[in-house]
Amino acid sequence: MLIKPLRQLAVALLASALLPSLAHAEQTLRIGYQKSSTLLTLLKAQGSLEQRLQAEGIRVSWHEFPSGLPLLEALNLGNVDLSADVADTVPVFTQAAGAKLTYFAREAPSPTAQAILVPADSPLKTLADLKGKRVAVTKAAGSHYLLIQALAKAGLSFKDITPAYLIPADGRAAFENHKVDAWVTWDPYVASAQRQQDARILADGSGLASYQRYYLAGSDYAKAHPELLQQVYLALREAGAWTKANPAQAARILGPLWGNLDSATVEQANARRSYDVQPVKLDNLAEQQRIADAFYREGLLPKPVDARAVSVYEPAQN
Q1: What's one GO MF term for it (predicted)?
Q2: Which domains does the chain possess?
Q3: How far apart are CA 78 and CA 32, in angstroms?
Q4: Nearest-angstrom CA–CA distance, 4 and 10
Q5: Is 7 left (phi over 0), alpha (psi -120 to 50) or beta?
Q6: List of residues 6+ apart from 290 with CB closer than 8 A
Q7: 51 CB-near residues (< 8 Å, 6+ apart)
Q8: Residue 306: which residues within 8 A CB-CB, separation 6 or more?
Q9: Which of 3, 98, 204, 290 is the most buried (most CB within 10 A)?
Q10: Which residues contact 236 (CB under 8 A, 6 or more apart)?
Q11: Residue 12 half-sphere exposure toward CB, CA atoms < 13 A
């Protein structure tokens, strides 16, 4: 007569023991990314991050954004858990808005991977020639800081130009249709404009803006899941090394995902990116402070920002 109760007790105990693992198995990592998020785009295309996290019972969902600022806004609102790489300027804007975000990786500088473009037959030859011109740029992007620095080098400011704040797709259209005199953007858009529209580089980031790209997480998520950040960090390092070692193969994968770009264009763009994934340390954020100060001087930030007043996750180095 005791067999049935004992069996029920055993089932209850087994279910109780399985509850933590079942809850873990239902966990979803939500990643926000852009088209220029090369390494996570490759991991997504190859399914390698999913494979890496499958053993932990974690599935991955992917959410594409047109540029970095809306991506980090979604991260701050808790609509995604991790952000793929965004330009160094973007965290400064979200920090000014009171976002609680944690840096967990960065790509070493790639200054030539963003540039000020003009048509091949443009009369603009120097940065000083931008005075009085209409310039397309994506607000808060790395290219925005490049434009500020380039104007300053020429003794100009934003008051001396007419900025057209456009996301990359709209910036490209405006540039193609001669609605703007110049377009400030980043790769692969730079390489695409060079090869497909014969665009000319007026200036790139060399000596102006180092163009580091950062990976971030919501601070609450980072505190709760440090082991997951470690796994993503290692996957990014492997993807970066693989991309530089296999440029042709990477281009074949990325080309269709980047609007059917030809392999030569993708390889040209990737050659200008470091893809060297490193930990973030507070001492690395000196240029972040210069970016924050520049945007504040231009009246684009509502208040001064202390770039070091952020959370940083330091992965274990294997």
Answers
A1: ATPase-coupled transmembrane transporter activity
A2: 6-108+212-260+275-312 (3.40.190.10), 111-204 (3.40.190.10)
A3: 11
A4: 10
A5: alpha
A6: none
A7: none
A8: 289, 292
A9: 204
A10: 39, 40, 43, 105, 215, 277
A11: 6
pLDDT per residue of the chain (318 residues) written in tens, 0 to 9: 433 443 443 333 333 443 343 344 458 999 999 887 999 999 999 999 999 999 889 999 999 998 888 999 999 999 999 999 999 999 999 999 899 999 999 999 999 999 999 999 999 999 999 999 999 999 888 999 999 999 999 999 999 999 999 999 999 999 999 999 999 999 999 999 999 999 999 999 999 999 999 999 999 999 999 999 999 999 999 999 999 999 999 999 999 999 899 999 999 999 999 999 999 999 889 999 999 999 999 888 999 999 999 999 999 875
Residues in the chain: 318
- One-letter amino acid of 219: S
Find, among 313, 14, 300, 315, the residue nearest to 140 by Cα. 300
CA 9 – CA 7 distance, rounded (Å): 5
